[in-house]
Amino acid sequence: MKAGAIVFRKEMREILRDRRTLIAIGLAALATPLVLFVISQVSTRTVAQAYTVGYTGTMPAGLDVLFNATGLNLKLVDDPAEAAKQQVDIGIVFSDKGLDEYYDPTRQSAQIADIRLQAILSKYDAAKVAASLQAKGVDPSVLNPLPVSVHPLSSPAQAAGNSFLSFFLPYILITMSLTGGLSAALDTSAGERERKTLESLLLTPAPRGNILIGKILAVSVISLVAAIAAITSMLIALSQISFGVSQGEPAHIGLSPLAAGVMIWLAVLLAASFASLTIALGTLARNFRQGQAYATPLYFITIFPASIVLFIPDFNPSLAYYLIPILNAVLVLRDVIVHGTVAWTALAVTTLSLVVTGAVCFYAALRLFTREALLVRS
Amino acid sequence: MEAAVRVDRLEKTLGPNKVLRGISLEARSGEIFGLLGPNGAGKTTTLRVICTLLGPDAGSVDVLGFDTRTQPEEVRRRVGVVTAEIGVYPRLSARENIAYFAELSGIRDGEVSRRVDTVIERLDMGSFAKQRAESLSSGQKQKVAIARAIVHDPPVLMFDEPTSNLDVLASREIRDFMVESKGRGKCVIFSTHVLHDAERLCDRVTIIHEGRVVAGGPTAEVRGRYQDLEDAFLSLVEAAR
């Protein structure tokens, strides 16, 4: 294994002198907080944004107060239906029969204005009915025969934060485990052929398996560093962004020590598997650019499982699903973030699956690295 | 004299091409052995089998008594190869490049630095040893390539068209180095199609054509009645067609 250590040391030295890899890691660490900052600014602006309601006819007394309090500005127009196409966000016609609403659901501003309008009208209707009942000597509570008191076990702000984290954390972990070390992996495999150093390396008495282990270890370390740097910067950024109010204080997102431990463990397994896989693909390629072309489909394959949590938030799979590499890491992380506990059996199955995947990728890389065609083709 | 490298009825097919068709040769310690032939004759493939990069399909190769098929790592410990491809690790210095190969060749930790210093001095590389390889000239890179091939002091040295990408001065240094290595008792195998170089340097030669040996023996004997080795070579290759 001494040869593996020698190769590891040399690869690390080369990687740390490679601007491409360092810039990729630095940009990834900076990009996540930047994206989060932009998202938070947009969402803050959306909450505070006022929308315009164009109307004709006589507005019932008291309704204008509710409109102004809910961030809906009223504007008198000739034709509300026409105005709702572009000039205003919603058009309303008040008549003796009631209210006609016109809005274009393809416009996001119209959707938000509609939600606010429905809330206003519900409140208005309830207040009117209660006033009429009271005027007739009837207790308005008859309209609510089963009063409900809601007691959430965690704050809605915390739930929103966990939901956000359960998508973004696996997504960043997986993409950074793959892309963080990709440049280094291709450089140490396809790059070695392109530079014509491979033949000299294979002429040394060092066993080829040990050489490969040294290369995989170096790429794994870089992938791991890239993933942890990106996640750490994301968590630091999230600690500065408020997700609503919990118990009178602004609510921030944080990662529990348990979730952090599980995340690091999964990052190690993913980094080792991806390192073997990308080195195997790089070994097939004659040069760096060809290696990049081979590795491109990996982006789509790996991002798909991360998206499943976004599209199916309540996905509760059987244990067999935890055998599927990458998807299992996403599910384990989601469980520990949302529920705050680890399903140890699921984690054990996930670990087994990722170790086997890593071993298969290593075997494939070894086979490719030791075949004669590697030298003949170059 | 005992053969340092012995190739016996070697056959090798690469893809659809049968490249070697029963090559046999012997190279001895303390001599420069010329492996001659036109492009595509099978010279490089023969050297690649000798240094264990490729395995033989039939026949056998042994280096100082070690079989390339069963003891490839022992063979690689005893062989140094210099090719026309002077690929180096661009982000490592010349010295780091050489030290990397010294370590991989199994030189003890305490010895690496001394051995690297020795080859740097021997090849007169002191002025650029600390420079990153990406900033070196072709001649300087070729010296790095030679240094990494000899840093473990192998008894067998193989040069595969080593001067094809070099200028006159750098080529001269390579030729001088081969002669010096012969003087140190090394077995030097020199593969080339530059017959003028071969005639001046080689004690014995083997000429191969389309994967077969067409002539072999002391250089003067192979040249025979012809004016020079080039005439002999052309005549032998023509006769083999």
What does this 3D model show about the protein?
The complex is a heterodimer of chains A (378) and B (241). With 378 residues, chain A is α/β, with parallel strands linked by helices. Chain A folds into 2 domains: 2-40 and 154-377, no CATH class; 50-143, D-Maltodextrin-Binding Protein, domain 2 (3-Layer(aba) Sandwich), CATH 3.40.190. Helices cover 67% and strands 7% of the residues of chain A. Chain A has helices at 2-16, 19-48, 63-69, 80-83, 108-135, 156-179, 182-188, 190-194, 198-202, 208-239, 257-284, 288-311, 327-339, 344-369, 373-377; strands at residues 51-56, 72-76, 90-95, 98-102, 245-246, 249-250. In chain A, α2 runs parallel beside α10 and α11 (257-284) runs parallel beside α14 (344-369). The longest helix of chain A has 32 residues, at 208-239. The model of chain A has no long low-confidence stretch (mean pLDDT 86). The mean pLDDT of chain B is 90. With 241 residues, chain B is α/β, with parallel strands linked by helices. Helix content of chain B is 38%, strand content 28%. Chain B starts with a strand and ends with a helix. Chain B folds into 2 domains: 1-78 and 155-241, 3-Layer(aba) Sandwich (Rossmann fold); 83-153, no CATH class. Classes of the chains: A alpha/beta (378), B alpha/beta (241). At the A-B interface, α1 and α9 of A face α2, β6, α3 and α5 of B.
